[in-house]
What does this fold into?
Amino acid sequence: MYIQSIVDSEEKSLQDFALFKNSTGQNTVINSRCTFCNWPTHSDRLSLKFSFAGTEAYYLRHRKVTVENDRLLVVNAGQPYSSAIRSAEWVHSLAIYFDPQLLQVAADTGSNEALLANPIERRGSMVWFYEDQLTATPRLRSQLTLLRQQLEASPVTELELEERLYHILLDLLLTHRRTVQHTAARLSAIKPTTRLEIYRRLHLAREFIEEQATEALTLDAIAGASMLSKNHLLRHFRELFSYSPHQYVTNVRLAKACHQLTQSELPVQDISLSAGFESPSSFSRLFKSVFALSPQQYRLQHAS
It folds into this structure.
């Protein structure tokens, strides 16, 4: 299925969202030029998000991820997320939702040795990506550009689309594998296999923090959820994510508060408590120290 759209209002954004939700289960490509978009929280097939021009924001477990400048995002199947665009200039984005069967075919390509070396997690029968930004290689960007140009020029058959998406998936899987291996090299563990396992468990820790950030978190709880000792958690979390667990919890809470300040009319006091802060006064002090604005001032400057 192919959807090409120009979106500049909330009404048109919701119309496109309703059209997209009818495409469940099949390969779907959305080629959009947009100045305003607000897709509510939803989950679907594994998808690739890319921007040819401008910036689109995605929100996963209270974490904001921006797609721009050859940086792409893969959202796993079943992962709830929302997205938004607010721009004075046209944002040209491409989203590809992969048929699960095609995804499995692409993931199972290669020798047994290559498959064992590929740090892609499988949860049940699903292929699973670490939901971080990836840098599009020149080859992958070229494939995405050619796909867009072909779809804009003339209709394509389901066979043609599936073949193109298959090769895009192969490049995407290879890019992901190389990125994981390169990033895991930051960790101080000696053996590559140990680094990859610690990398996997640290992402479990990050997921747990993002899902539970509004609750009272402890190191014991985070370490237990990620199957790491507190020593390994404290030593390696900063190596991989550049923040301590406590700092990361604070950042996730602030991101949730920022989102609510700009997307809702809730009182600041309610927002501070729902984001996990102990009191509105401590929230306001921290917020101003980070953003050089009070929560009210931030709302006025950034509200829709």
Notes: The mean pLDDT is 88.
